[in-house]
Write a structure and sequence with these properties.
The chain is an all-alpha fold and 208 residues long. Helices cover 61% and strands 0% of the residues. The protein is built from eleven helices and no strands. The chain starts with 9 loop residues before the first helix and ends in an 11-residue tail after the last helix.
């Protein structure tokens, strides 16, 4: 019940099953010169998996520009852009993916998480209105806490827990809210609950 591991989207995460897509994809027309090598999807995935996120972003962005109707390529470009420290490009690519595939809630959530990381908390609330699942409620709670609205954050966390009581980040965030409210004993109880759900969150032991 943790957040899905951040990996390239379905068409790319299954690269081993679709190696036939390794044929050359022509670059955008305006860049179609003899000195521009063809871009391969497996090369972009290899760069991402190697941690070369800038190169992965450049390759995925080129692929998405060549095939602009594919939301998976825009999503992969967004993911690589975020890892490469290019939040504005990542957000723009994610919104293109969402426009192409509006039924996929992952695009909306990832856009909201990018906004959260950028400190654009009011936009997070707007992006996730109405909230659709536990992750939406949790992300809204995180934005509300940062906006100085701890009681609203706690209410959002209650709604998140009602949907997915096993998501360890919910009591962890509840602990953060109680810390902000100056209620240390309740914060420690919340952190202990998070540890009970996810024993790997050893960093929370320091908060007990």
């Amino acid at each position: 019940h943790t957040m899905p591991v951040v990996t390239p989207p379905r068409a790319l995460a299954l690269a081993s099953a679709v190696l036939f897509l390794g044929c050359a994809v022509a670059p955008p027309v305006e860049e179609a010169r003899e000195d521009v090598p063809p871009v391969h999807e497996e090369e972009a995935l290899a760069a991402f998996n190697a941690g070369d996120y800038q190169a992965a972003y450049d390759r995925y962005a080129a692929l998405a520009a060549a095939e602009p109707a594919r939301p998976d390529l825009w999503g992969a470009a967004s993911l690589a852009g975020a890892r490469a420290g290019r939040p504005e490009e990542a957000l723009a690519a994610r919104r293109k993916a969402r426009a192409l595939d509006p039924r996929d809630p992952w695009h909306r959530l990832r856009a909201a998480r990018l906004l959260l990381a950028a400190g654009r908390f009011e936009e997070v609330l707007a992006e996730l209105e109405p909230p659709a699942d536990a992750w939406d409620h949790l992300t809204r709670a995180q934005a509300l806490r940062r906006l100085g609205r701890p009681e609203d954050a706690l209410a959002a966390l209650d709604r998140a827990a009602a949907v997915d009581p096993a998501l360890a980040l919910i009591p962890q965030e509840r602990g953060e809210v109680f810390d902000a409210l100056g209620r240390p004993s309740e914060a420690a109880t919340a952190y202990a609950a998070a540890l009970g759900l996810d024993a790997s969150a050893v960093h929370l032991q320091m908060r007990l």
